[in-house]
Write a structure and sequence with these properties.
The complex is a heterodimer of chains A (about 425) and B (about 80). Chain A is an alpha/beta fold and about 425 residues long. Chain A has two domains: about 5-250, Thiolase/Chalcone synthase (Peroxisomal Thiolase, Chain A, domain 1, 3-Layer(aba) Sandwich); about 260-410, Thiolase/Chalcone synthase (Peroxisomal Thiolase, Chain A, domain 1, 3-Layer(aba) Sandwich), CATH 3.40.47.10. Chain A has helices at about 20-25, 65, 70-90, 110-125, 135, 140-150, 165-180, 195-205, 215-220, 245-250, 280-290, 310-320, 335-340, 345-360, and strands spanning about 5-10, 35, 50, 100-105, 155-160, 185-190, 235-240, 255-265, 300, 330, 360, 385, 390-400, 400-410. In chain A, strand 9 (about 300), helix 12 and strand 10 (about 330) form a beta-alpha-beta unit. In chain A, helix 11 (about 280-290) packs across helix 12 (about 310-320). Chain B has about 80 residues and is mostly helical. Chain B has one domain (about 5-15, about 25-75): Non-ribosomal Peptide Synthetase Peptidyl Carrier Protein, Chain A (Orthogonal Bundle). In chain B, about 55% of the residues lie in helices and about 0% in strands. Chain B has four helices and no strands. In chain B, helix 1 crosses helix 4 (about 65-75). Chain B starts with a helix and ends with a helix. Classes of the chains: A alpha/beta (about 425), B mainly alpha (about 80). At the A-B interface, loops of A face helix 2 of B.
Chain lengths: ~425, ~80
């Protein structure tokens, strides 16, 4: 099977609108979570989120007349894809369009437009629903627009597996390269659902933190006083390439994707299996695929959403997979700073894994003031840590009991 | 504002083409590159602005700014 290189990465979220902004804020332990402005308190019981600020997509990526026709997750996906592609240098090369594809993840698709068009339908009737309504929100329109912008004619689809979407997309894209069906793939995910209806839904599931008065402290994975996740939005995109071909064209290789796992809990619609029956084999699959011993893993970017049940279950699963070595692993949840990007989380956090491998710095888990005694691993509390690492693993788990793990390796020429 | 001017303004807002570059004889497909979805959206905006219903079979005949203006004039209350 072909080796898979990462040659470009990009991210955006409440902590920044491009890779360098996001990364410098994360390693500074700076929260991107803030109070939502101009929302009606009656309609928004929860008014905090990791919201993207001061962002406008360039007209080069989405023409002025098109901008209001596409929901925000499409803007985010295009914006980050462009940054990652530029870093990879792929566009400057001659490539076979049929050998370049895009597989992204999104959990909910264009929810804001679904909500506003529903209002139009009820208030003003079916004749007033825009002919662009369907293309504005369908989950695969980010990948569709990417193909049109760059003339990528290879495989093109979108994965929707709740909060594991982007992680599954990375595995699917890596598979295309391993099997030789494609030379380069745009993978990762984007999400943008800061709109009233999903907030109401998540809140009524008791999934969200209620710390309206203290936004930067609200997301506190593995801390005793955590009370739910904080909604985030944004994107995380990676350019994957056939490693030998990337080398041949002189690309700068950032890291390798060496393994991934994917399982189901087969247990409950929203609660994780408390003993990790799905997540343990998921992490194990990633290690086995790479042929890596558990003792070689240095860093885990945890799913760690800051929910009371989820953080304990993941901690248990990590201890079960890694045994005594678990205490040597640094585990951090950058959701403490970005909030939960839902279907894009695995994209953003995979970008974080790649940066950690390249820079030898691990982003912290902030707000870890009183560690929960049931969460007894090394969570890189509150301050970034310098550590040269060889292997970084990302966990992404989703509603429906779906699990995905991705394993990245430092690249040595 | 003259009806023609209003029509041009709606088209200009939707297409981001400057109003000064849109004339009576400007053709939606040939000059402004509008596709069928663009046309549906444009007609919806006309209906809303002028309170006139444009039947679906009629929209195919409305190829230029003049066509639309004339239709609206003869059908407006």
């Amino acid at each position: 099977m072909n080796r898979v290189a990462v040659t470009g990465i990009s991210a955006m979220c409440g902590a920044g609108n491009n890779l360098e902004e996001v990364w410098s804020n994360l390693i500074a332990g700076k929260s991107g979570i803030s109070t939502l402005e101009d929302v009606d308190e009656k309609m928004w019981p929860i008014r905090i989120a990791g919201q993207v600020k001061d962002f406008e997509i360039s007209e080069d990526l989405l023409a002025a007349k098109e901008q209001s026709r596409y929901d925000l997750f499409i803007h985010f996906g295009l914006h980050c894809t462009d940054e990652a592609l530029k870093q990879s240098g792929l566009l400057e090369e001659k490539f076979d369009p049929l050998k370049v594809g895009a597989i992204l993840g999104t959990g909910l698709g264009g929810f804001p437009f679904i909500q506003s068009s529903t209002q139009t339908y009820w208030n003003r009737g079916p004749r007033r629903v825009s002919p662009f309504f369907i293309p504005s929100f369908i989950p695969n329109m980010a990948t569709g627009k990417i193909s049109m912008k760059y003339d990528f004619k290879g495989v093109n689809y979108t994965v929707s597996s709740a909060c594991a979407s982007a992680a599954h997309a990375i595995g699917a894209g890596a598979t295309e390269i391993m099997l030789g069906r494609h030379d380069a793939m745009v993978v990762g995910g984007s999400e943008a659902v800061i709109t009233g209806l999903p907030f109401a839904g998540f809140n009524n599931m008791k999934a969200l933190s209620k710390r309206n008065d203290d936004p930067t402290k609200a997301s506190r994975p593995f801390d005793k006083d955590r009370d739910g996740f904080v909604m985030g939005e944004g994107a995380g995109i990676l350019i994957l390439e056939n490693l030998e071909k990337a080398k041949a064209r002189g690309a700068k290789i950032l890291a390798e994707v060496v393994g991934f796992g994917a399982t189901a809990d087969a247990y409950h619609i929203t609660a994780p299996h408390p003993e990790g029956e799905g997540t343990i084999p998921c992490m194990q699959q990633a290690l086995d695929m790479a042929g890596v011993k558990k003792e070689e893993i240095d860093y885990i970017n945890a799913h760690g959403t800051s929910t009371p049940v989820g953080d304990v279950a993941e901690t248990k699963a990590i201890k079960s997979v890694f045994g005594d070595h678990a205490k040597n692993i640094d585990v951090s949840s950058t959701k403490s700073m970005t909030g939960h990007l839902l279907g894009a989380a695995g994209g953003l956090e995979s970008v974080v894994c790649v940066k950690s491998l390249v820079d030898g710095v691990l982003a912290p888990t902030i707000n870890l003031d009183n560690q929960d005694e049931n969460c007894d691993l090394n969570y890189v509390p509150n301050e970034a840590k310098k550590r040269d690492i060889q292997y970084a693993l990302n966990n992404s788990f989703g509603f429906g009991g779906t699990n995905s793990t991705t394993l990245f390796k430092k690249y040595e020429a | 504002m003259e009806m023609q001017e209003k029509v041009i303004k709606i088209v200009s807002d939707a297409t981001k083409v400057e109003a000064g570059n849109i004339k009576g004889e400007t053709n939606f497909v040939d000059d402004l590159n509008l596709d069928s979805l663009d046309m549906v959206e444009m007609m919806m905006k006309m209906e809303e602005e002028f309170g006139v219903e444009i039947p679906e079979d009629k929209t195919e005949e409305l190829k230029t700014i003049n066509d639309v203006t004339n239709f609206l004039k003869s059908n407006a209350n």
